[in-house]
Amino acid sequence: MNNQALTPESTAETREIVLAARAAGSRLLPAGRRTWPGAGGWTRDGGTPVSTSQLDTVHHYEPADLILTAGAGIGLDRLARIVGPNRQWLPFDAPGSSAGTLGAAVASGTSGPLRTRYGATRDNVLGLEVVTGDGRTLRIGGRVVKNVAGYDLVRLFTGSRGSLGIITRVSVRLFPIPGADETLLFAGGPSEAVSMARTVCTSEVPVAAAELVEGEEVGADRAMVLAVRLLGGPREVEESRRRIRAALGTEPWRALHDGESRRFHTARIGWEEGASLVARLAALPDRLDAALAAARACATRANGGAQGSAAITADALQGLVRVRASLPDVDPPTGLAETLATARRDVEALGGSLTLSHAPPQVATRVGWTGSRRETAALTERIKALFDPDSVLAPRCP
Predict the structure, then answer these.
(1) Is the residue at 302 inside a domain?
(2) What is the pTM of this model?
(3) Of 2, 291, 340, 356, which is the most exposed, with the fewest CB atoms less than 10 Å away?
(4) What is the mean pLDDT of residues 91-108?
(5) Do 160 and 186 share a domain, yes or no?
(6) How many CB atoms lie within 10 A of CB 130?
């Protein structure tokens, strides 16, 4: 991969870069700040990075309408500083998103634990400007919540990972910052924590997020901690706290309030940073225990069968379990690929999936970054041909 990135300063310049690459038969790699270039094996075929970091202008922001339009290269951290004084925020909390750009967040389409309360990333993108792989400039969607006619191309491009076009401008829906932010930490053994998580997920309490965290990560003397996040007005949060405690029949081991709660969840966004192996196992929330068992097998193998740096965490409301590990650069633990392949078969049998976000090449080659997608491969190829017929944009579904 060519490490020298091209940095267009306008949509027109982005289009010129795409047209030049198409004429030359070369490949491009759409990127934001390039903080996560190898995730998911997306760059393995090479290409010249095209960074949108210079496209960081705020084009429209009307606090009363809770709508913002900005260049795709604006950092999510800067965006938060712009809308924060108006007590507004964009609740994108996907792993690694704190260091990324708005365009990258939309292109990846990944959502975090706050999806349950605020909707997925695609639900909060109102409009896009995109330069497609064949050099067209598309302006799709708009700056209003209800602005859909015909095919919803906004949702198509959200999560396309730059495989169809380079996103240059984004319009998003904002939300008021809640008056109270509280996280209740309940400690217990693995099975006890899963049972508590199931109770929380099936309750009628408006929980913003529910994550399972290994106890040692938060200083607890129990194996697992269930972190239940409550957002809303002070009275709403107080009532939710009372109902959660009644449903679980126990007091929280610890409670985090406002700034402390926000810092806890900001740290969770960066949980994968520095890991050489990240596997994400998704299953239905009621099969969380099985997904956790498969994840533990992967973590144990990554540690070489002994205690090591591997760790697991789970989003109980979405049924997503993640494994993080630091592996030797040259010689990953023996049998790791086979264990990951077995875990994939196990979760796929449950109707779920296993995806590698980071992995040594020798492991990813044997396991595959994603599972089998034969049933959608033909459709994906037809869509790719509509917007990038010459495969100028190198990213593709592994």
Answers:
(1) yes
(2) 0.89
(3) 2
(4) 88
(5) no
(6) 30
